[in-house]
Amino acid sequence: MTTKESFTESSYLKWRVDQERKWEALCSRCGACCGAAEGDPCEHLQVDGSGRYCCAVYQNRFGWHQTVNGEPLRCVPIRDILHKSWPGDRCCGYKNRTE
User: Fold this and answer.
1) What is the pLDDT at residue 99?
2) To 10 degrees, the CA torsion angle through 35, 37, 40, 41?
3) DSSP 35
4) Residue 72 has pLDDT above 80, yes or no
5) CA–CA gap between residue 60 and residue 1 (Å, rounded)
6) Is pLDDT of 98 > 80?
7) Residue 68's CB: how many other CB atoms inside 10 A?
8) Which pairs with CB-CB distance under 8 Å and at least 24 residues apart come from 69-77?
9) 90 contacts: CB under 8 Å, gap ≥ 6
10) pLDDT, position 8
11) Is 82 buried (19+), middle (13-18) or exposed (0-12) by CB count in 10 A?
């Protein structure tokens, strides 16, 4: 859509859904942002049948949780930490896309 075209409400919502899908598709599901590389990941981090990580509470993930060993862990939007480093971040699809 060009900048001169206006969005209708439904076309805007469709565009937003499409943009979210594209963003989510960047995730390599490495689990590094959830502590998988540190040995004490978030208690909600799960491994699927293909060895990729996923969050058991994905739709409600932001905020305070705890690690498997009971340590406090704050889940934040990945965009808030892309400028930082964390163990295992070299496999992060978001970081690789933005670097």
Assistant:
1) 61
2) 40
3) T
4) yes
5) 32
6) no
7) 14
8) 69/40, 71/40, 73/35, 73/42, 75/34, 75/42
9) 96
10) 86
11) middle
